[in-house]
Design brief:
The structure holds 2 protein chains of 2 kinds. By secondary structure, chain A is of the alpha/beta class. Helix content of chain A is about 40%, strand content about 20%. At the A-B interface, helix 9 and strand 4 of A face helix 4, strand 5 and helix 5 of B.
Chain lengths: ~290, ~120
């Protein structure tokens, strides 16, 4: 096959594009979930997987089921939104937080932190544990938000498969922890349940970066590996929300493959720890 | 499972928790005995020691040295080791991890926590 052949759009591709657009519109009109500005490539990949899972030949067939069988949408939502994460993912990010951000957060009498796009909660528990270890959890409120309510329910349960815990333990250690992750969970029957005292100051809440607005003033926003699924416009919308939510000199953490560089909001932030994608909101008070 | 511990009271406490739950427990009283027990247990998939609980303060060869010796051997690189440390010795915990322990638990042992750790680290 020549290059020209592989780059040309076949009639089948064209139909898929049309069906994709119609499906996304149907989801928006019927269920009020807005995927219209999600990045095309990953959405396509996920929908192709969904076709197999729901045993549909085309997206039009899937759309038919989606509109007429209300059981289908929650399952499809998992395909479209659930990101697999791990606790203390990219341990150097958490190490940088401990070393650079925590000393500054310590100066506030009370704290609010927003973990946006928290999925099944691995990042939220990482924050709760880190804050407990740094003696700040009792005076912190953590907002854990996601558009997928199934994922939120799993996050609120705080139960993970026991074979993931060894990896979480290694990450935790590399994040600069001085004690064992086993201080925070009980394992039995193939699962590990995290201590419910960690959840005391966590609010799990349904929130869409595509359609909802700012709900609180916070000192830190952590939103990692979420923006990569958005197109430029939606990234700008989300970053605008973070900028509005952050207090003066507040902190923003993004994922390792995410950047502010081309964003409309780039000037609102300064690099804090560049390699770990930690930023600080600029002070325009002068 | 190999329990490396010189204090008979602790050995008794550990075996009375582990054996009723179906574990076969072998005892070593110091690091040298632990290495000998591992040597006897065989290699690879056929080995009959899946996990080691390692005390630190022991005569002849202490836990730190024993863990470093174990990790020098390619066939034992992935053998899960849980160190049993003294609660007061905070430095011990970091030294255990540096010596090659996968995790640790402070003594006096909290049984539920020990079982959690074993469930996490025991190979499937």
């Amino acid at each position: 096959m020549t290059d020209r052949d592989s780059s040309a759009e076949s009639p089948a591709d064209r139909s898929f594009e049309i069906e994709l657009k119609l499906l996304i519109d149907a989801i928006y009109l019927k269920y009020h979930y807005d995927f219209r500005e999600y990045a095309g490539a990953s959405l396509k990949r996920r929908l192709l997987a969904a076709l197999e899972r729901f045993d549909c030949a085309t997206l039009s067939q899937l759309q038919d089921r989606l509109l007429h069988d209300t059981e289908v949408f929650p399952q499809l939502l998992d395909y479209l939104t659930v990101q697999v994460s791990e606790m203390f993912r990219d341990p150097d990010y958490f190490l940088a937080l401990r070393q650079t951000v925590i000393p500054m957060l310590r100066t506030y009498p009370s704290l609010k932190i927003w973990v946006a796009g928290c999925s099944t909660g691995e990042e939220v528990y990482s924050f709760a544990i880190l804050l407990r270890e740094e003696g700040l959890l009792d005076r912190t409120l953590i907002y854990a938000t996601d558009i997928n309510t199934n994922a939120l329910a799993r996050a609120a349960a705080g139960v993970y498969s026991v074979d993931r815990i060894a990896g979480f333990t290694d990450n935790h250690r590399r994040s600069g922890a001085r004690n064992s992750l086993s201080d925070y969970y009980t394992a039995a029957y193939g699962r590990a349940m995290f201590d419910k005292s960690l959840r005391k100051n966590i609010v799990f809440s349904d929130h869409s970066l595509a359609t909802d607005s700012v709900f609180a003033e916070v000192q830190l926003v952590s939103c990692r590996n979420v923006l990569i699924y958005f197109n430029r416009e939606l990234q700008d919308r989300a970053l605008g929300l973070f900028s509005d939510a952050l207090c003066r000199k507040g902190f923003l953490g993004l994922g390792s493959k995410e950047s502010l560089r081309f964003s409309r909001h780039a000037d609102a932030f300064a690099d804090l720890v560049r390699e770990q994608r930690l930023f600080q909101k600029q002070d325009f008070a002068a | 499972m190999l329990v490396v511990e010189d204090d008979v009271r602790n050995v008794f406490a550990l075996t009375s928790v582990l054996e009723p739950r179906g574990a076969t427990v072998e005892i070593a009283r110091n690091g040298l005995e632990a290495l000998a027990a591992l040597e006897r247990s065989g290699k690879g998939a056929g080995a009959n020691i899946d996990l080691v609980l390692m005390d630190i303060m022991m005569p002849e060869m202490d836990g730190f040295t024993a863990m470093r010796e174990i990790r020098k051997r390619g066939e034992w690189k992935k053998l899960p080791i849980i160190a049993l440390t003294a609660k007061a010795m905070r430095d011990d915990q970091e030294k255990c991890l540096a010596a090659g322990a996968n995790d640790y638990i402070a003594k006096p042992l909290d049984v539920e926590k020990l079982l959690s750790l074993i469930r996490v680290w025991m190979p499937k």
